[in-house]
Amino acid sequence: MHLKMSTFVSWLSMGLFLLSMASGLIVVFAYHPSLAYDSVQKMRFIIPYGDFFRALHYFSSEAFTLMLLLHIGFEVAKKKIKISNTSWNYSILGFFLVVVLMFTGFVLKGDQSASAATDVAFNLMKNTPILSHLVPLFQDESVYYYKFFIWHVIFLPLVLSLAIYKHVSTLTVKIEYFTIAIGLSIAGYLLFVMPPDIALTQKVDTLKGPWFFWGAENLLRVNFSSLAVNLILLIPFGLLMALPHIGYKKSIKTLIVAWVLGYFAMSLIW
Fold first, then answer.
1. Which tens digits make up the pLDDT trace of 94-149?
2. Which residues contact 198 (CB under 8 A, 6 or more apart)?
3. Of 10, 26, 36, 90, which residue is least crowded by CB atoms under 10 Å?
4. Which of 108, 7, 6 minimizes the C-alpha distance to 57?
């Protein structure tokens, strides 16, 4: 049963990934980084089916992220990790790239919450040794969202596709899994609401970044340093990367579970 569920999640993840890429290709033709917020609003209210394809891209990406977490959880729960060390390394690299992709996608909507999340991310990078040198790769003074746009639509998808291919040796999926991916994403569109777009002139009491960034935001609220927050964010990737390579696997798995529970609790404090 565990094996069947693990296989189902793996192939559904691939279907959701391909759907996210396909819907993103449609959305990108309506988006202009120099007019980020206005582009998103035109998709919502003016361009025919623009809101649907934007929602399809959003919910397929969210579902892909959740399925990827579930897939990694199934692998970690196994008594023995039977995949090769190289394949495992590419899977964790892909996990990291998905998080960055999700963040850049959140930023590209160009509203107040996106701007606030970007400012927090830049401050985390600027106040951390080594990471401070990476700021110019994302920050563009003339067109604020231009470099995020390039990363989100070109570089990150290409590297993620390579990582997935190296992990499973294919970028194709059976039609039934792709169909399920479409169904899940449409269900998300019908049953749930995307995070609201907060106009740049609208007065709000609080602003939140993407859900996986809440823990980092709350750590900063209780005066953790930027370096400490970045190290905490990197802990799960380091533990997962080390898991198949060294002994004490049970201890590492315990640390991974403890981190997940701790970060989840920190995310819900406010």
1. 999 999 999 999 999 999 999 999 999 999 999 999 999 999 999 998 899 999 99
2. 111, 112, 113, 204, 207
3. 26
4. 108
DSSP tag of 84: -
Q: Does the pLDDT value for residue 153 go beyond 60?
A: yes
Write the CB contacts of 94 (distance below 8 Å, at least 6 apart in sequence): 68, 160, 163, 164, 167
HSE-CB for 63 with a 13 A CA cutoff: 31
47's CB contacts (< 8 A; 6+ apart) are 30
The domain spans of the chain are: 2-198
Amino acid identity at 122: F
Q: What does R_g of the chain's alpha carbons equal in angstroms?
A: 19
Q: How many CB atoms lie within 10 A of CB 111?
A: 21
* DSSP per residue, 87-131: HHHHHHHHHHHHHHHHHHHHHTT-SHHHHHHHHHHHHHHHTSTTG
- Average pLDDT for 180-206: 94
Which residues, at least 6 apart from 70, have a Cβ–Cβ distance to it below 8 Å?
Answer: 9
Q: What pTM was estimated for this model as a whole?
A: 0.94
Question: 3-class DSSP state for residue 245?
Answer: coil
Mean pLDDT for the chain overall: 93
At the topology level of CATH, where does 2-198 sit? Cytochrome Bc1 Complex; Chain C (1.20.810)
- Can you tell me the distance from the alpha carbon of 114 to that of 208, in angstroms, rounded to the nearest whole number? 8
**Hey, what are 51's tokens?**
């809101």
Q: Is the Cβ–Cβ distance between 159 and 96 less than 8 Å?
A: no
